[in-house]
Design a protein that fits this description.
By secondary structure, the protein is mainly alpha-helical. It folds into two domains: about 80 residues, no CATH class; about 90 residues, no CATH class. It is elongated and about 95 Å long.
Length: about 230
């Protein structure tokens, strides 16, 4: 009695995209053998529906259908010739590396203030002198003090902030003498308790607006008085 040889995966052809499995790969091999172009196109569209069910997470992608057709062409080793909705990619396009993203190399004199503060200073320095510019200068000085406290929790003297503001603006911006910057304790308290206060406010609003807790308590009291 002759026995059939064992069919091991190691003896089978290589799966180009293993995530779709052996059956989908055999479907692709079958569609390559169809001679009539219209029938080959209909079969390819049916395979697209199958692999779409096997890969449902791609539905949230912007190029969902294009990705599925690319996978089909890849599994056919770019031999599939059908009337698809998208042009067939080439191996060179898929193997090409993306271009390098340029990283900004601008230098910041005081890194703890950040690049946005430097942009604010440049924008403010280009404004016409007046009340708007003076108010903007005060806002920038308080923001610089807040950024400084992120790196240094100790007391930050206002003269240091004003000196750095003058250096970064090249002497164009100055806070008026009668203007007082925000207190260090207030800024630290805002950084520590700001998000917590917002959460507490939402909780109080929900409790007051819904009235669920108070209504349940009143209902329990009514039941007690009934007996």
């Amino acid at each position: 009695m002759s026995t059939a040889p064992f069919d091991y995966n190691t003896a089978r052809p290589r799966l180009i995209i293993p995530e779709y499995g052996r059956h989908v790969q055999r479907m692709v091999e079958h569609v390559l053998g169809i001679e009539e172009r219209d029938q080959r196109t209909r079969t390819a569209k049916a395979i697209i529906q199958v692999i779409a069910r096997l890969n449902p997470q791609l539905r949230n992608s912007e190029h969902f259908e294009r990705t599925l057709w690319d996978h089909l062409y890849i599994m056919s080793e770019f031999k599939l010739d059908v009337d698809g909705p998208f042009p067939k990619p080439t191996p060179e396009e898929l193997e090409s590396k993306p271009s390098r993203v340029p990283y900004p190399q601008t230098q910041i004199k005081y890194g703890h203030y950040g690049k946005m503060v430097q942009r604010m200073i440049d924008q403010c320095a280009a404004m016409e002198p007046g009340e708007t510019r003076d108010a903007y200068t005060t806002v920038i000085a308080n923001q610089m003090k807040k950024q400084f406290l992120v790196w240094n929790r100790d007391t930050v003297p206002d003269p240091l902030i004003l000196k750095d503001l003058g250096e970064l603006s090249k002497g164009k911006l100055r806070v008026k003498e009668d203007v007082q910057l925000a207190q260090t304790a207030d800024l630290l308290r805002t950084q520590q308790n700001g998000p917590r206060n917002e959460i507490d406010t939402r909780k109080r609003h929900n409790n007051n607006g819904g009235g669920g807790g108070g209504g349940k308590k009143r209902n329990r009291n009514r039941k007690k008085n009934r007996y």
